[in-house]
Design brief:
The chain has about 240 residues and is α/β, with parallel strands linked by helices. It is built from 7 helices and 13 strands. The C terminus is likely disordered.
Protein backbone atom coordinates (compact mmCIF):
# COMPACT_ATOMS: atom_id res chain seq x y z
CA UNK A 1 0.00 0.00 0.00
CA UNK A 2 1.09 3.59 -0.65
CA UNK A 3 -0.59 6.51 1.10
CA UNK A 4 -0.02 10.23 1.60
CA UNK A 5 -0.49 11.88 4.98
CA UNK A 6 0.17 15.45 6.09
CA UNK A 7 3.84 16.01 6.85
CA UNK A 8 3.28 18.77 9.39
CA UNK A 9 6.79 19.27 10.83
CA UNK A 10 8.14 15.79 10.18
CA UNK A 11 11.84 15.67 9.36
CA UNK A 12 11.39 12.76 6.95
CA UNK A 13 9.31 12.54 3.79
CA UNK A 14 8.87 8.77 3.55
CA UNK A 15 8.36 5.80 5.88
CA UNK A 16 8.33 2.14 4.83
CA UNK A 17 6.40 0.21 7.44
CA UNK A 18 6.00 -3.58 7.79
CA UNK A 19 3.01 -4.77 9.79
CA UNK A 20 2.12 -8.27 10.98
CA UNK A 21 -0.26 -9.64 13.61
CA UNK A 22 -1.88 -12.80 14.92
CA UNK A 23 0.98 -15.30 14.99
CA UNK A 24 -0.63 -17.25 17.85
CA UNK A 25 2.70 -18.88 18.62
CA UNK A 26 2.42 -21.97 20.80
CA UNK A 27 3.85 -25.49 20.98
CA UNK A 28 2.10 -26.38 17.71
CA UNK A 29 3.83 -23.65 15.70
CA UNK A 30 6.83 -24.54 13.56
CA UNK A 31 10.15 -22.76 14.06
CA UNK A 32 10.68 -22.80 10.28
CA UNK A 33 7.57 -20.64 9.86
CA UNK A 34 9.00 -17.98 12.17
CA UNK A 35 12.37 -18.21 10.42
CA UNK A 36 10.72 -17.65 7.03
CA UNK A 37 8.91 -14.63 8.43
CA UNK A 38 12.16 -13.13 9.73
CA UNK A 39 13.83 -13.78 6.37
CA UNK A 40 11.01 -12.00 4.53
CA UNK A 41 11.26 -8.98 6.83
CA UNK A 42 14.99 -8.84 6.15
CA UNK A 43 14.26 -8.76 2.40
CA UNK A 44 11.62 -6.04 2.84
CA UNK A 45 14.06 -3.82 4.80
CA UNK A 46 11.36 -1.77 6.58
CA UNK A 47 12.08 1.52 8.29
CA UNK A 48 9.69 0.46 11.05
CA UNK A 49 8.47 -3.00 12.11
CA UNK A 50 5.10 -3.24 13.87
CA UNK A 51 3.51 -6.26 15.56
CA UNK A 52 -0.25 -5.95 16.06
CA UNK A 53 -0.93 -8.33 18.95
CA UNK A 54 -1.83 -12.00 19.50
CA UNK A 55 1.79 -12.84 18.77
CA UNK A 56 2.12 -15.53 21.43
CA UNK A 57 -0.43 -17.60 23.32
CA UNK A 58 1.62 -20.52 24.63
CA UNK A 59 2.45 -21.34 28.21
CA UNK A 60 5.16 -19.13 29.69
CA UNK A 61 7.21 -22.25 30.46
CA UNK A 62 7.02 -23.61 26.91
CA UNK A 63 10.64 -23.95 25.79
CA UNK A 64 9.75 -23.45 22.13
CA UNK A 65 8.78 -19.85 22.86
CA UNK A 66 12.40 -19.05 23.66
CA UNK A 67 13.38 -20.32 20.21
CA UNK A 68 10.71 -18.17 18.57
CA UNK A 69 11.87 -15.13 20.55
CA UNK A 70 15.48 -15.70 19.52
CA UNK A 71 14.52 -15.76 15.82
CA UNK A 72 12.36 -12.63 16.10
CA UNK A 73 15.16 -10.81 17.92
CA UNK A 74 17.18 -10.87 14.68
CA UNK A 75 14.71 -8.48 13.01
CA UNK A 76 16.11 -5.01 12.49
CA UNK A 77 14.43 -1.78 11.42
CA UNK A 78 15.79 1.74 11.13
CA UNK A 79 13.36 3.24 13.66
CA UNK A 80 12.84 0.12 15.76
CA UNK A 81 10.55 -2.85 16.36
CA UNK A 82 7.34 -2.13 18.27
CA UNK A 83 4.07 -3.82 19.08
CA UNK A 84 0.96 -4.08 21.22
CA UNK A 85 -0.58 -6.94 23.18
CA UNK A 86 -3.71 -8.74 22.03
CA UNK A 87 -6.34 -10.70 23.90
CA UNK A 88 -4.46 -14.02 23.58
CA UNK A 89 -1.36 -12.75 25.36
CA UNK A 90 -3.68 -12.00 28.26
CA UNK A 91 -5.30 -15.45 28.18
CA UNK A 92 -1.87 -17.13 28.37
CA UNK A 93 -0.42 -14.77 30.95
CA UNK A 94 2.20 -13.63 28.45
CA UNK A 95 1.65 -9.97 29.28
CA UNK A 96 3.64 -10.76 32.41
CA UNK A 97 6.25 -12.87 30.63
CA UNK A 98 9.64 -12.00 29.20
CA UNK A 99 8.95 -13.17 25.64
CA UNK A 100 8.83 -9.69 24.12
CA UNK A 101 11.99 -8.54 25.89
CA UNK A 102 13.79 -11.59 24.49
CA UNK A 103 12.29 -11.00 21.04
CA UNK A 104 13.43 -7.36 20.98
CA UNK A 105 9.88 -6.05 20.55
CA UNK A 106 9.08 -2.90 22.52
CA UNK A 107 5.47 -3.19 23.67
CA UNK A 108 3.43 0.01 23.90
CA UNK A 109 0.67 -0.24 26.53
CA UNK A 110 -1.41 2.94 26.28
CA UNK A 111 1.80 4.83 25.67
CA UNK A 112 3.43 6.67 22.81
CA UNK A 113 6.90 7.48 21.56
CA UNK A 114 8.31 10.06 19.17
CA UNK A 115 10.59 8.49 16.57
CA UNK A 116 13.31 10.36 14.68
CA UNK A 117 11.66 13.65 15.71
CA UNK A 118 9.37 12.89 12.79
CA UNK A 119 6.22 11.01 13.87
CA UNK A 120 4.27 9.83 16.90
CA UNK A 121 3.79 6.09 17.42
CA UNK A 122 1.07 5.17 19.91
CA UNK A 123 0.07 1.71 21.11
CA UNK A 124 -3.24 0.99 22.84
CA UNK A 125 -4.06 -1.59 25.45
CA UNK A 126 -6.47 -4.22 24.16
CA UNK A 127 -10.15 -3.48 24.73
CA UNK A 128 -10.51 -6.28 27.30
CA UNK A 129 -8.41 -4.21 29.74
CA UNK A 130 -10.78 -2.14 31.88
CA UNK A 131 -8.19 0.59 32.49
CA UNK A 132 -7.63 1.18 28.78
CA UNK A 133 -7.46 4.91 28.13
CA UNK A 134 -9.95 6.74 25.98
CA UNK A 135 -8.42 7.67 22.64
CA UNK A 136 -8.66 11.40 23.34
CA UNK A 137 -6.80 11.05 26.63
CA UNK A 138 -4.15 8.84 25.04
CA UNK A 139 -3.41 11.34 22.28
CA UNK A 140 -2.94 14.25 24.71
CA UNK A 141 0.69 13.26 25.24
CA UNK A 142 1.58 13.16 21.52
CA UNK A 143 3.41 15.98 19.74
CA UNK A 144 0.78 18.03 17.92
CA UNK A 145 3.11 19.09 15.13
CA UNK A 146 3.91 15.53 13.98
CA UNK A 147 1.98 12.80 12.12
CA UNK A 148 0.25 10.17 14.29
CA UNK A 149 0.45 6.39 13.80
CA UNK A 150 -1.73 4.28 16.12
CA UNK A 151 -1.67 0.53 16.84
CA UNK A 152 -4.84 -1.06 18.23
CA UNK A 153 -5.18 -4.85 18.19
CA UNK A 154 -8.91 -4.82 17.47
CA UNK A 155 -10.46 -2.45 14.90
CA UNK A 156 -13.43 -1.60 17.10
CA UNK A 157 -13.30 2.19 17.56
CA UNK A 158 -12.84 3.30 13.98
CA UNK A 159 -15.58 5.95 14.17
CA UNK A 160 -14.01 7.55 17.25
CA UNK A 161 -10.48 7.43 15.88
CA UNK A 162 -11.52 8.92 12.53
CA UNK A 163 -12.51 12.09 14.39
CA UNK A 164 -9.06 12.51 15.98
CA UNK A 165 -5.64 13.59 14.72
CA UNK A 166 -4.60 9.99 13.96
CA UNK A 167 -3.30 9.65 10.41
CA UNK A 168 -2.83 5.85 10.32
CA UNK A 169 -4.29 3.06 12.46
CA UNK A 170 -3.00 -0.54 12.29
CA UNK A 171 -5.11 -3.46 13.57
CA UNK A 172 -5.44 -7.23 13.36
CA UNK A 173 -7.56 -9.73 15.32
CA UNK A 174 -10.20 -10.47 12.65
CA UNK A 175 -8.25 -13.00 10.52
CA UNK A 176 -10.66 -11.81 7.81
CA UNK A 177 -12.98 -14.43 9.29
CA UNK A 178 -10.48 -17.21 8.41
CA UNK A 179 -13.31 -19.55 7.35
CA UNK A 180 -16.34 -19.04 5.11
CA UNK A 181 -18.98 -17.91 6.05
CA UNK A 182 -17.41 -16.37 9.18
CA UNK A 183 -15.83 -13.72 6.95
CA UNK A 184 -19.34 -12.51 6.13
CA UNK A 185 -20.02 -12.12 9.85
CA UNK A 186 -16.81 -10.16 10.50
CA UNK A 187 -17.78 -7.81 7.66
CA UNK A 188 -20.99 -7.05 9.52
CA UNK A 189 -19.30 -6.70 12.93
CA UNK A 190 -16.44 -4.42 11.88
CA UNK A 191 -16.49 -1.28 9.74
CA UNK A 192 -13.28 -2.68 8.24
CA UNK A 193 -12.56 -6.39 8.72
CA UNK A 194 -9.64 -6.56 6.30
CA UNK A 195 -7.61 -4.31 4.02
CA UNK A 196 -7.44 -0.52 3.81
CA UNK A 197 -10.03 2.22 4.10
CA UNK A 198 -9.74 5.95 4.56
CA UNK A 199 -12.38 7.48 6.82
CA UNK A 200 -12.20 11.18 7.41
CA UNK A 201 -8.49 11.99 7.44
CA UNK A 202 -7.45 8.62 8.88
CA UNK A 203 -6.12 5.63 6.96
CA UNK A 204 -7.21 2.34 8.58
CA UNK A 205 -5.44 -0.95 7.93
CA UNK A 206 -6.60 -4.36 9.17
CA UNK A 207 -4.45 -7.40 8.43
CA UNK A 208 -5.84 -10.90 7.93
CA UNK A 209 -2.98 -12.20 10.08
CA UNK A 210 0.21 -14.13 9.59
CA UNK A 211 -1.00 -17.46 11.05
CA UNK A 212 -4.20 -19.24 12.01
CA UNK A 213 -6.21 -19.64 15.18
CA UNK A 214 -8.20 -22.77 16.02
CA UNK A 215 -8.59 -25.20 13.10
CA UNK A 216 -5.46 -25.42 10.91
CA UNK A 217 -7.21 -24.25 7.76
CA UNK A 218 -8.00 -20.93 6.09
CA UNK A 219 -10.54 -20.47 3.33
CA UNK A 220 -10.74 -16.66 3.39
CA UNK A 221 -7.90 -14.20 3.24
CA UNK A 222 -4.20 -14.96 3.12
CA UNK A 223 -1.28 -15.21 5.48
CA UNK A 224 0.19 -11.77 4.98
CA UNK A 225 2.70 -9.11 5.90
CA UNK A 226 1.34 -5.66 5.13
CA UNK A 227 3.88 -3.28 3.61
CA UNK A 228 2.74 0.33 3.88
CA UNK A 229 4.67 3.14 2.23
CA UNK A 230 3.77 6.43 3.88
CA UNK A 231 4.61 9.64 2.06
CA UNK A 232 4.63 12.62 4.38
CA UNK A 233 3.33 15.39 2.14
CA UNK A 234 0.99 18.34 2.13
CA UNK A 235 -1.58 16.49 0.05
CA UNK A 236 -2.34 13.52 2.30
CA UNK A 237 -5.22 12.46 0.08
CA UNK A 238 -4.18 9.57 -2.14
CA UNK A 239 -4.18 5.85 -1.35
CA UNK A 240 -3.08 3.17 -3.76
CA UNK A 241 -3.01 -0.61 -3.27
CA UNK A 242 -0.49 -2.65 -5.23
CA UNK A 243 -1.31 -6.38 -5.69
CA UNK A 244 2.39 -7.15 -5.34
Amino acid sequence: YTIDVPARKSKIDHLKLAFAADFHLNKNAYIRFVQRFAEKIKMIEPDLMIFGGDIVEGDRNDGSLSLFAEVLSRIRAKYGVFGVLGNHEHYAGQERGSFFDKAGIKILCDTNVVLANSFNLTGRNDSHIETRKQIGDLLKSTVDSLPDILIDHRPIEIDKVSKTTVDVQLSGHTHNGQLFPINLITRMVYILSWGHKKIGNTHFFVTSGIRLWGPPVRTTGKSEIMIININFSEEGTKAQHSPD
